[in-house]
């Protein structure tokens, strides 16, 4: 202690000075390194033409999208596929904003505040206004709703409503800027009359041709030798076909955490303790919800709809009896028959739902009674549902639904579903809803009556114990420690007969790998490791994984090793074509070409310039083009043509007028330009994106799931 005290006494001032310097350097780091750096690490998650997107802004975009998605999914959790969609959507939105901003500035496109006001307050409200301020009762735009929102904004002390209105104005402005831009592009599209005339002339004749074909298959692949230099040259000459994104390839061994027999015994013992309570509990629904891994379904299912491993034994149980235990995948289950009845497997009905606010039941009930009386008197229930129902999902169908016993139907309307399956065809009834309000329901059709069952399932998972998990981890650690390079990794896999798997074409922002599920840590490691490096042990949900990096592909042209079979096939085909063309030499006629190659003279009819497909040949655009070569016409034999299926020599025997479609120029122009507009709408942004300088640094910030 005395030594420590001496250090404190002697160096206290020095330590304090050093701490102060560290704090000052932290506070001043933005001055020297810019606001986009945090603790020496850049927070720039991406750039478009030099403009930055901050990581925090990107994460906020993702969070906003997640919240919207959860609202749409009524609070359900988001799976990994949905999460990945949201991440990419947020990224694409950022790119779109910055890329299009540059386009708008270059063309001078803008939207003024006056325009925005007119789109909100004018005679023809903007589509976004109509979409967001529609009266749910009438289905029509209600300006009063928008006025109330603006009044709330003036009274809102937090400023949140005002911020939402500003964001809404910005959305209208962006919508209009994009509309102006697309309109300018569309106005630049044109189908001139001279082009229509030329195409009509090109397609106005059918050719009948004679030809000699030597298929490439007549020369064995083994006789054609190619070099790497020739293959690489082919790649360079056809760069557009071999451009690839950055990716990685890993091979891995998985040590799965599989429950043992003792784990199954432990789960069974726990389940047997609960079965005694299941036998006697008066509240089976509450018991199942509290204790079972299979949710309680408070409804009936037809015999055909029940799909469980022990189905034949379960469906014949008497009411109150229990079957089990039986195993269903990784759970052990007891099934209890709660009730059985005869029910239709399909019902159709109409409903008018009228929701009542607290304390307003009596007023709503009077309207409901009036409507029910009108229906009983012969009024059109579909028309009344479209006008008065508070159920927006069925207003367009006149309140009509078709259900089976296990169909999804809103929990708030459970009483309606119970009635339509237990009532009689044609029955009309007003039902008080548990959520407040009433539903006027008329059964219009019931069919296919049969037995329906209500069954409760008490299920417990068979989870691997800590000991089982530790054993699997021990095997993985032992494998990783003894196989530190690719060579020994491969050798051990073969010697021990381990199941090695491959994950190929791994992209920098992948979060899921096939066969592994969520595995972001493996992806992050793969982009930091060297080729041939063996990974540490990765802990996934139910397995431990050891991987080796076997492939590194940078953005650009695909390396020869990855595309060798495809390139070899093309280069060999070219060499075969040259050999075959040499056999033809310069034939004076088709008979000479046939004699030189020992192939027959064949005929093809109805060859038209508008289609590259010839029934007797297949897809042969070069042959079709040659058939209409004015330099050869009907007088000359063609030169050897390198086609898709072989080398051809052709001679046109005759031309005949082709049936004309009879479409006038105005119709042709409208159809042609409409197709062009659709193509532009689909591809324009991708073209602009490709021409922009986009840098994606997101992978550096996402190292874990």
UniProtKB/TrEMBL annotation:
It is a single-pass type II membrane protein. Residues 344-445 form the PpiC domain. The chain crosses the membrane at residues 12-33. The keyword Cell inner membrane applies. Its main location: membrane. It is found in: Cell inner membrane. Keywords: Cell inner membrane, Cell membrane, Chaperone, Isomerase, Membrane, Rotamase, Transmembrane, Transmembrane helix. Belongs to the PpiD chaperone family. This is Periplasmic chaperone PpiD.
